[in-house]
Amino acid sequence: MARESVWEKSRCEKMKGFSELFHDLDEMIKTGERITRMVKYFEDAHEEDASWASWFLAGNRIKGVVKTGQLREWASQRSGWPVWLIDECYERVGDLAETLSLLIGGNKEAAPTSLSEVVREILLPLAHADRSEKAESLKRAWDRLRPMDLLPFHKLLTGGFRIGVSRGNLCKALAEVGQVDPAIIAQRISGDWDPGIRKFEQIVGEERPEDSWCRPFPFCLASPLQKEPETLGDLNDWWVEWKWDGIRCQFLNEENGGLLWTRGDESVGESFPELLNLSPHLPAGLAIDGEILAWGPEGMRPFSRLQKRLGRKQPGPSILKKEPVRFMAYDLLRMEGVDMRTLPFLDRRKRLQSILEELPGGFPLQLSMPVESTDWEKLAKKREESRDRGVEGLMLKRRDSVYSTGRVKGDWYKWKVDPYVADMVVVGAQLGHGKRANIYSDYTLAVLDQQGEMVTVAKAYSGLSDVELKEVDRYVRKNVTGKFGPVRSVRPGIVFEVAFEGARSSGRHKSGIALRFPRIQRWRKDKKPEEVDTLENLLGYARMGERAREDGTKTDDAGNLLLF
Amino acid sequence: MDEPMIVRPEGLYCPAGGFFIDPRGRVDKALVTHAHSDHARPGHGKYLVSEGCLPLLKLRLGQKIQAEGIAYGKVCKIGDAHVSFHPAGHILGSSQIRVEVGGRVWVVSGDYKPQPDRSCEAFELVKCDVFVSECTFGLPVYRWQKEEIIHQQINAWWQENVEAGRPSMLFAYSLGKAQRLLRGLDSSIGPIFAHGAIHPFLPVYEKCGVVFPKVQKPKEGSGEWAGSMIVAPPAVEDAGWTRRFKGASRGFASGWMAVRGARRRRNLDRGFVLSDHADWSGLLEVIEGTGAECVKLTHGNGEPLARYLQERGVNASMLDGSGERMGEE
Prior knowledge:
The structure holds 2 protein chains of 2 kinds.
Chain A: H1 2-12, H2 18-27, H3 31-44, H4 47-57, H5 68-79, H6 83-93, H7 96-104, H8 115-128, H9 131-144, H10 147-158, H11 167-178, H12 182-188, H13 200-204, E1 220-221, E2 223-224, E3 238-242, E4 247-254, E5 257-262, H14 273-276, E6 286-296, E7 299-300, H15 303-307, H16 317-322, E8 325-335, E9 338-339, H17 345-357, E10 365-367, H18 376-383, H19 386-389, E11 393-398, E12 406-407, E13 412-416, E14 420-431, E15 440-448, E16 454-460, H20 466-478, E17 480-484, E18 487-490, E19 495-500, E20 502-505, E21 513-516, E22 519-523, H21 535-548
Parallel strand pairs in A: 1-12, 2-13, 8-10
Antiparallel strand pairs in A: 3-11, 4-5, 4-6, 6-7, 6-8, 8-9, 11-13, 14-15, 14-18, 14-19, 15-16, 17-18, 19-22, 20-21
Helix pairs in contact in A: 2-3, 2-10, 3-11, 5-7, 6-7, 7-10, 11-12
Chain B: E1 6-8, E2 11-14, E3 19-21, E4 29-31, E5 46-50, H1 53-61, E6 67-70, E7 76-78, E8 81-87, E9 95-101, E10 104-108, E11 130-134, H2 147-163, E12 168-171, H3 177-184, E13 192-194, H4 202-207, E14 229-232, E15 249-253, H5 260-265, E16 270-272, H6 280-289, E17 294-298, H7 303-311, E18 315-318
Parallel strand pairs in B: 3-4, 4-5, 5-6, 10-11, 11-17, 12-14, 12-15, 13-14, 15-16, 17-18
Antiparallel strand pairs in B: 1-2, 2-3, 7-8, 8-9, 9-10
């Protein structure tokens, strides 16, 4: 620890600005170092800068500042390189903000500009400027920024601000600055807030009760069950529910209405007015954790039906009628403005139940019911019904568990059904981004159709070790057979075992099938390309998924899959 | 018109002189631009290199090879070809090879950099009709700073690590880059060590007037490494050899470090942008300076540079038979 502080001192005396923070965080590998570095920044920074820095580091962005196409064009004018050359550079670098920074260069003589100046004088006006004003003000920005400011500036401009600082670590740093509980910080930086208005003091200052009603709590996450369930001890200590296949959300209710927050910290209420309409019937100061599900008169529908409602703000009456949804509630986080999270799970559920029981019937809000079983073995049998029921498996929650922040091992487990697996051959590859820039790490995968032709069914880019990645990269470079934009077609030779959560028919894909969450599980070096799975097999999985949800639905008699 | 050089499966071949330049496979006569393993390959009958390159070549390929060294600028006749070697500024003894047959001149660059490097001979611009140019860093995102600035960055990083009580591990190719780095280290900061693969080349450099600080060999298990600088080839990056330097901050010096992804992928603490190849503007400047009417690009992902040169009216193309490659520096 003593070594750390000496080192910090020598660095930080020289460095106070946001650009310095950005580059340091970008270079640091160890989480502890990063947190210490952020604390130092927040302590030294001007209050307004600290507010904006918190907002950006929490993953927020100023929207509509500039289109990347325009940005490339102006960067081309500025640097003198043709746009196609800038695109070539982008392909090599794998990061547009970084590419532009390397090409533009910056003004070595410029004085440092503070983060809030950049936001107030450049970014916010840009969002409201017309095209030619944008070009002008961007040129001025490039004149006044130092070389080291360019990368963070372009990151703010293009939106993607990933430098390996998780929200949890940001909370830890802010919590240390304000000497407040990280959970409270997490709540304060969740959701939509304006750093131009909210003072840094309100982020790290002492908690006031009414602050919190309209902001979601950090979600409690379950760990995957990776051991025998018997090792969890007595089944009577556990509460078991189905693991619903929908969108995890917190339903918040305050005096002025309801709010729906997803795990991605998006407010999606506008897309689900029938859920917000519940607000007047529920007490204010309420927060419920649950899942939005596609739900017709026949019961639950597959996740793909829910996708028709996603991203569609203010849906019209016909889609509301055709694609109804329902909120499946399973936990109570706040009641009458009081944080319930430290109560045992069973107590929270009892309270949740009594609130929901007072609702009149016919509302699209219901309580997730327990899956009863007398022992683990019987429960394991029940779990096998998951696919037929259209759920992902079981949730196990310790009956006396508190609602913790993030993924805490030991209290909540998801006991999912095993994924489907199929062997697929790599037929295309693309350079990755970020850590995988300049490495062929995104793969197009194919199986065999009835004629024995290879047909593309999925793209996947995770699940390989660094060593394997390098090996595949070498193979790709030696076996390129064609170039389609950024994608290289590759001579078939590499076979992966690919896991996926489900399959559904899709008109958009040539193969007629789309896989859910495909990811590479392992490299089947023992298999040849002609030994991969068949399209028929995959279609079989799709049909299974469909059949599973048939109970009472109007399924096409011809066995036609094009239901959704 | 018959060109002085043509492409054969083994590499560039001069029919008038019966020799190859930097060939693969086994050939009778090989002219070699420099001693890196992707240019100087074993198994050829006879080697002709620059005088400075000769001892390095023998260290790499063995003392028994049949090899001759020739002074820079001295013209010799091989068959009907007039051949001379000219400094390429890449590493010690590295050459561009000029081949003239019947009044037509080709220059084969090998690897080169016009930027100053105090550990090797300065690059010399050679006029020619056809210029065969490397293009390892053929994109404008690659721009080098002066080597003094990078040496300062490395010494500052080392100083920080000394204050934090940890060793500094700097990875660099064992021939060329390692010597360039060692020359720039400030020995007042702490003791300097180099991996065994680097040491044999040091006396050769010293003979040519390159002055190094005191460089030691790290002995097995001799405990305390805090504050030391250890220079090692990237091949041992993940090997057991590095394990003894506990808690070391890890840096890598290479042109590839200009892009953050390259640094992050290797899980390095620091990347130093120091290359022994020409950067984008260096390539353009040299290509223009040669006055060549025809430019052939090799060693790299050269399509963007070729297209850029074509748009500026230069007859540029990829040299047939040269694939994608990321070589030594």
